[in-house]
Amino acid sequence: MQALTRRHALTVAAALTATAVAPVAAAADHHHSPDSFDEVYKGRRIQGRPASGGGHHHGGGYAVLVDGVELHMMQNADGTWISVVSHYDPVPTPHAAARAAVDELQGAALLPFPAN
Q1: Burial of 80 (0-12, 13-18, 19+ CB in 10 A)
Q2: What does pTM read for this prediction?
Q3: Of 80, 114, 86, the residue nearest 102 (C-alpha)
Q4: Mean pLDDT across the chain, nearest whole number?
Q5: What dihedral do alpha carbons 47, 42, 109, 85 form, nearest 10°?
Q6: Which residues in 1-116 belong to E strands, given as ranges?
Q7: CA torsion, points 67, 85, 56, 111, in degrees to nearest 10?
C-alpha cells in the first residue's frame, strides 16, 4: 500500500471542497432574480421584473405580465420556471415562460388568476 503523501492529501482535500461547494453555488444560481424584460412578442406585450410586494407571487419575487395581466409564475426547485398557462413545459427563465404562455394562448386573452 502506498504511503499518503502531502501532495495526494492536498489533492483529495481540494477535490472534496470543490464537490461540497458546487451544489451550493448551483442552488444559489437558480434562485437569483432574473433580468427584467419588456417586449412585444407575437403582437402581445410581455413584461417581467422583480416583484415589489403585493400581488400573488410564487416566482421568487418576480412578476410577469402579458398585456398588463399578471401571469402566475412559479420557480421549480431545479431553477426552471412554469406558468399557469404552460404548466407542463418548464423553461429556463421567466422570459421564456412568458413567450411560451403567448404561444399557448394563441391570441386568447389571459384572464387574471384568482388570489386565495
Answers
A1: middle
A2: 0.66
A3: 86
A4: 79
A5: -70
A6: 37-41, 44-50, 62-66, 69-70, 73-75, 81-83
A7: 50
